[in-house]
Design a protein that fits this description.
The protein is mainly α. It has 11 helices and 7 strands. Helix 3 crosses helix 4 and helix 3 packs across helix 5. The protein is rod-shaped, with a radius of gyration of 44 Å.
Length: about 290
């Protein structure tokens, strides 16, 4: 086994390595110095005591993917081939069975194969958990992808550059508030349609705005409610003998009615006070 070890600045000066605690970094150097020529360490606990590190620091290294600890306690340096290049005449193969569960990617970083076996021929528990976790994530991503495609089907482009109205029905314009309290919600198209349908469109909107404010209510479809008020007033005018009233009659769906012209006239009319004839009591001198 070679007596010298090297370290790559690419690993030791990376943000991921420098963000770890000083104890975890010291433990990493100690493990590298004492690993065999394949980067495996079989006395991890002893080296933890020598370097003054604890189990939390070992887990810190593993969570950042600098090492991997097998169920047997053997530790492998994941960037071992990045750090060290050992000549064949000095290379001594590792005698640990965990070596059979390692593979090397194109970046010379170790990867843990799914068929990792411990010395008794059983699967490593941590490796099984990682495999299950990875499979579960892939399965969840597949389900979410299928669910998204099912809920949001693709819309094909209109043929011959013609706009398909059914496709773009969902693109409704935003509603704006009308009336004194801005609580009669109508789109631009609905407001234009209502102005064309009703001669007293603004007066109906003002009445509805006052009514909604006083009741603390709101309509799901204000245009439908306005039309309902207007149609009800039209029927009342047809059945009423006093048909000269052209102003809105209906103020609410509960049956309350207003005669706007009479309200205006009464509001401008000076109240009249009736003088009562009081009998004067006779003065003392008149008796």
């Amino acid at each position: 086994m070679a007596g010298k070890r090297m370290f790559s600045k690419q690993v030791l000066l990376s943000d991921a390595f420098l963000d770890m605690s000083a104890e975890a970094r010291a433990l990493y150097v100690t493990l590298n110095m004492c690993a065999d020529d394949d980067g495996l360490v079989n006395n991890t606990k002893s080296l933890m005591r020598v370097s003054g590190a604890s189990k939390e620091h070992l887990e810190e290294l593993e969570s950042n993917n600098f090492i991997h600890v097998f169920e047997s306690g053997v530790c492998v340096i994941m960037h071992w081939k990045v750090h060290n290049t050992i000549k064949n005449d000095r290379y001594v193969p590792s005698l640990l069975d965990e070596k059979n569960g390692l593979s090397e990617n194109e970046k010379k970083v170790y990867e843990i194969r799914s068929e990792i076996l411990d010395p008794q021929g059983r699967l490593d528990k941590k490796s099984i958990e990682k495999i299950k976790s990875k499979e579960g994530e892939e399965r969840k991503e597949k389900i979410d992808f299928e669910k998204t495609n099912k809920e949001s089907p693709r819309v094909s482009a209109p043929v011959n550059d013609e706009i398909d109205e059914d496709v773009f029905d969902c693109a409704e314009t935003a509603k704006a508030g009308y009336g004194p309290y801005r609580n009669v919600m109508l789109t631009d198209d609905e407001f234009s349609a209502w102005k064309d349908e009703c001669p007293q469109a603004d007066e109906y909107i003002n009445l509805m705005s006052n009514y909604l404010k006083s009741k603390g209510e709101s309509y799901a479809d204000c245009l439908a409610a306005l039309r309902s008020w207007y149609l009800r007033d039209c029927r009342k005018r047809e059945n009423s003998a006093d048909s000269q009233f052209a102003a809105p009659l209906t103020a609410s769906h509960s049956g309350a009615s207003y005669d706007l012209e009479r309200v205006k006239a009464n509001s401008l009319k000076v109240p009249e006070y009736v003088k009562r004839n009081k009998e004067k009591s006779p003065a003392p001198g008149d008796v």
